[in-house]
Amino acid sequence: MIHPMTLPPNFDPGAALPAKTTEYGTFHEVRAGASLAAQLVANGAAQDIDLAHVVLEAVLRCQERDPRDPHLGAFRWMAEDTWIEDLNAVTFVLRSLIPMMIRHGDRLRPPLHGRVMDAIRLGLGEIARLDVLPAYTNITALDIANTCLGGELLHDPALLARGRAKLAAWIEFTNRSGHPHEFNSPTYLPVSIRALGGLAELSRGATTRSRARAMLARLGLSAVLHLHHASGRWAGPYGRAYQPTITTGTPPERTLLDEWIAGGLLPGWLGTLWAALITTGLTDGWAGVRDLVARFFRWRVGLGWYAVALLGPAAYMLAGVGLHAMLTGETPTLPIYALPLGQAGLMFLQTVALGMLLNTEEWTWRGVALPLLQNRHGALIG
User: Fold this and answer.
1) Residue 3: what are its φ and ψ, rounded to 5°?
2) Is the entire prediction scored with pTM above 0.90?
């Protein structure tokens, strides 16, 4: 039996939205309502689904539906707003609605299901008209995730093509710039990370997933390398940061990184890489860190060892196949034999590159722990 979800303490049943009280009064944030509805639908209890319908009705009432309005499809930031004030609200609302419909859209009753899908279509139209510059990192990431996933959800080739083109353009822009413009931002990096994480998880396009994961790793690596060891916070300068983050009024950013790595949002090698660099820095200083990195590019063994390292696994696999055939009389079918030569070569290069640079054993064990143990206990015991 599924138990109903515990509602947040600021949920206002009268408005069917979470409430936010400031010095100017009490307001109801529309994006928080969309997020709550998605959580209710995901939990799936009958009581949750009924309440989700009520919350979604409140959210949809805050969308601009007048075809004469230049911002048709946009959402108000607060339910109390009399017009569209923050043009980014639509990206944050759809960030909740689109994954909700991909994962659990069948849990909504038909009339509301169709209205939510129509709201998503209108919202994506507004996002396309706004078409933010790639320098606006977090909104660009949301645009990409919403448009790619929304195009797949709505079976809309034009939306899908736009989202994929935007992703490629953002990657190219970032490559030219050397780094995303909202770099090292305690406020906005989490938005970009979560948007790309959702895209990598839910997209049906293999290329889209690969590109999203590559940018996740890029953003995550920068975040890890900018973490101040003693405080657990990101070191400045920041590409956009607000109070109270810069005055330590929030938990240390290390907490976020730990959650992202443990939850699989960022690749696990980032955690061990960070540990290897920190340990080396504390014991040997910057000179030790530079030497650790340099060791991965110093290959000083004879050609025979290269042959053993590169051909040994293939020989081991073929020996196993031969032994199996001798003992059973059957010849196993190995799908890798059917790979085109170019594709097999790409897999080989990928394996070598990942094994050298991202294999956690190489950084933490071979790079740090083993040398320390061998210095202390000798080559054999260490």
Assistant:
1) -85, 145
2) no
Q: What is the rounded CA–CA span in Å between residue 139 and residue 191?
A: 8
Q: Which regions in the chain score pLDDT beneath 70?
A: 237, 245-246, 248, 274, 296-297, 299-300, 331-368, 382
Q: Contact 28/79 with Cβ under 8 angstroms?
A: yes
Question: Residue 200 burial (CB < 10 Å; 0-12/13-18/19+)?
Answer: buried
The owner of tokens 């055939």 is: 325
E runs forming strands in the chain: 11-12, 17-22, 25-28
Q: Which pair of structure tokens corresponds to residue 154? A: 């709505």
40-84, pLDDT tens digit by residue? 999 999 999 999 999 999 999 999 999 999 999 999 999 999 999
CA 293 to each of CA 102, 273, 275, 277, 302: distance values in angstroms, whole numbers, following the listed order: 42, 11, 14, 9, 22
* CA–CA distances in Å: residue 177 to residues 183, 237, 318: 11, 17, 46
Give the number of residues written for the chain. Answer: 382
Could you give the 3-state DSSP secondary structure of residue 126?
helix
By the 8 A CB rule, do 108 and 116 touch? yes
Distances (CA, A) of 281 to 216, 288, 301, 364: 25, 6, 27, 13
Cβ atoms of 36 and 55 closer than 8 Å: yes
DSSP string covering 203-216, please? -S-HHHHHHHHHHH
Can you name the residues that pair with 28 across neighbouring β-strands?
19
Cα gap 121→150, rounded to integer Å: 8
